Amino acid sequence: EATFTAIRWSALSQERLLVGGILGHQIFSTFILV
User: Fold this and answer.
1) What residues contact residue 10 under an 8 Å CB cut-off, 6+ apart?
2) What secondary structure letter does DSSP report for 1?
3) Among 7, 32, 33, 34, which lies 20 to 30 A Cα-Cα from 25?
4) HSE value, Cβ hemisphere, 13 Å, CA-based, for 21
5) Average pLDDT per run of 10 along the chain, which is 34 residues long?
6) By C-alpha distance, which of 21, 24, 17, 28 is closest to 9?
7) Is the dihedral of CA 8, 11, 17, 19 positive or negative?
8) How far apart (Å, rounded) are the C-alpha atoms in residues 28 and 21?
């Protein structure tokens, strides 16, 4: 169960990083275009 939790946490943090990266990229692109 501990291993499963660790896997879930790492997957969650990776997903959060991915979403944050996409949002940051969109904001960055919009900022440059404007």
Assistant:
1) none
2) -
3) 7
4) 6
5) 88 92 92 80
6) 17
7) negative
8) 10
